[in-house]
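Exam revision sheet. Question 4 asks you to relate a sequence to its structure. Input first:
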Amino acid sequence: MNPDPFQLYQHLYDRYGPQHWWPARTQVEMMIGAVLVQNTAWTQTTKALRQLEDQGLLDFRAILDTPDERLWDIIRPAGYFRVKTKRLKALAAFMASFDTLESCIHPDNQHLRQELLTIYGIGKETADSIVCYAAQQPIFVVDAYTKRLFLRLDWIHAKTDYDAMQALVHASLPKNTDTLGEFHALIVRHAKEHCLKRPRCQGCPVTYCSWVASP
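Answer key, structure tokens:
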């Protein structure tokens, strides 16, 4: 069938309802979480975030002032703690170059995505997460769950790149931050309940999926 992300969005929303994503209380927590969640589960990310909070380190300037070895111990639950410490400090250094968070992270900063992509360890998925959920700009976040689901729907092929998948969604859904963010969150929810690496097809709301699960 022809790709129809809007129909998929409606089916997922009807099944799962609003996801209230990204689960963060502040823009800073959201941005730090976007780095910590790279290549790890959200449950482990949450542990690292709470430990940073307990130490008063959900703050970019505080992160910059904290010795690497201390951060290693604090964010260890999120995995790859040495690499992620370097990435957090790179993001913190970028943010510290602004007088206020709000002077950079806001809906009208059209240069934000490109600026984020120049930071060590910030790729397209992490940058777009920050742009969508922290800066409230209308952009769809593509992740591994998106690719898995779109492949099983025969909407893309294995070599389809990030930009092409993002463009597919942008061409179908309203250019609205809430809708694009919700679609990303719904795909994550669906991937955890049905579209796993070994899919659970029984009861799946995406009845037009071409995937046939192995017995």
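Marking note for examiners. The mean pLDDT is 95.
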